[in-house]
Amino acid sequence: MHVARLSLTDFRNYRSADLAFEPGATVIVGRNGQGKTNLVEAIGYLSTLASHRVSSDQALIRAGEDAAIVRAMLASGGREVLLELQLNRKGANRAKVNRGQSRPRDLPRYAHTVLFAPEDLAIVRGEPSVRRRMLDGLLVQRMPRLAGVMADYDRVLKQRNSLLKSARARGLAAGQLTTLDIWDERLVALGAELIDRRSELVGQLREPLAEAYRSIVDADHRPELQPVLSIDGADPDDETDAAGTAAEGRAASGAAGNVPTAERFAAALAALRRRELERGVTLAGPHRDDVLLLLNGLPAKGYASHGESWSFALALRLASAELLRGDSSTGDPVLVLDDVFAELDRLRRERLAAAVGGYEQVLITAAVLEDVPAPLAERVVHISAGSVVDAPAANAAALPSNDRESGEPLPSEASGV
């Protein structure tokens, strides 16, 4: 799959932009703050329903505007599909597929991308939420229906937390809050599926992760991934002993044997109810899980050097791309490297260029063109102050005009993400 054309209206610092792309590598060049990352951020949003830089859609809408529109024409195997997304300051986001009504959560069925950016260093060094977001973004691309499961889980979690806070304020004891059982059932049903899917994904990533790491570093540092599950007693928020926390979680998981995840989740909630009432928050579930990253048997967070951390994060993204490449009916995902080469030495730049050279489309952003290896720099787009100032000519037809200008709104019936 490749992006044949991208059109933006009031997205980030772009009043409007219209770009044609070809298969192969394209470098988007511009000084910092000019908007080059905004272009690839828009493409990435279509595949994961999230930005890799901010948690709220509001920051994606141009200042002073009520909505932003992203359009992308995707091509795969001689077929094309037009995706349109309207991000609204108020109300639900809206979407179309081939000009027909759709839901935003359906877009990842068509758009597959893997984006690596400087922010990804936090996958190795940051909080558990960053690693959860990385796994969930990949899950949504591989199983788009999970976007709905995740949204439903978040809604139930908020309701349950609200009930716990209310009970704490009223001084209710555990036995006096029978309505909590109803929310527990729903939380367990949704959460157990997310836990299982994440655990399966971690297992599937292990082999491609090791291969990707070796391709970048040319050394066997034994990169590993291990789930850290709160329903089995681990506390990923405890920074004092990450390795010990993970070991306790693995021991508890092993002791659980073949006990279904839903039963373990329900038992954890029952055991934690008193503490949850005291704190007014849900203490177990996929929203509190983590994945431990290991190099040479030691936690990468705290032990890995800066270069090793970069290589681990990049290898995780390349491993994700390999999984998508292997199970996608649309072929290769679009590989996006956002300001990556400036952080690598010459040898790792060359190794990375070789590793990504076989993908159908690679989009690269760079502040300095000379940072990008020559084999990837045949096509260059120059960006300045939210405008495309120079780009290769292409034969792709222009995308349909802005719906808001043409009087044809995106469908209000489409639900939000």
Automatic annotation (TrEMBL):
<dbReference type="InterPro" id="IPR003395">
    <property type="entry name" value="RecF/RecN/SMC_N"/>
</dbReference>
<dbReference type="InterPro" id="IPR001238">
    <property type="entry name" value="DNA-binding_RecF"/>
</dbReference>
<comment type="function">
    <text>The RecF protein is involved in DNA metabolism; it is required for DNA replication and normal SOS inducibility. RecF binds preferentially to single-stranded, linear DNA. It also seems to bind ATP.</text>
</comment>
<feature type="domain" description="RecF/RecN/SMC N-terminal">
    <location>
        <begin position="3"/>
        <end position="366"/>
    </location>
</feature>
<protein>
    <recommendedName>
        <fullName>DNA replication and repair protein RecF</fullName>
    </recommendedName>
</protein>
<keyword id="KW-0067">ATP-binding</keyword>
<keyword id="KW-0227">DNA damage</keyword>
<dbReference type="InterPro" id="IPR018078">
    <property type="entry name" value="DNA-binding_RecF_CS"/>
</dbReference>
<keyword id="KW-0742">SOS response</keyword>
<comment type="similarity">
    <text>Belongs to the RecF family.</text>
</comment>
<feature type="binding site">
    <location>
        <begin position="30"/>
        <end position="37"/>
    </location>
    <ligand>
        <name>ATP</name>
    </ligand>
</feature>
<keyword id="KW-0963">Cytoplasm</keyword>
<feature type="compositionally biased region" description="Low complexity">
    <location>
        <begin position="242"/>
        <end position="255"/>
    </location>
</feature>
<dbReference type="InterPro" id="IPR027417">
    <property type="entry name" value="P-loop_NTPase"/>
</dbReference>
<dbReference type="Pfam" id="PF02463">
    <property type="entry name" value="SMC_N"/>
</dbReference>
<dbReference type="InterPro" id="IPR042174">
    <property type="entry name" value="RecF_2"/>
</dbReference>
<feature type="region of interest" description="Disordered">
    <location>
        <begin position="397"/>
        <end position="417"/>
    </location>
</feature>
<feature type="region of interest" description="Disordered">
    <location>
        <begin position="228"/>
        <end position="255"/>
    </location>
</feature>
<keyword id="KW-0547">Nucleotide-binding</keyword>
<keyword id="KW-0234">DNA repair</keyword>
<keyword id="KW-0235">DNA replication</keyword>
<keyword id="KW-0238">DNA-binding</keyword>
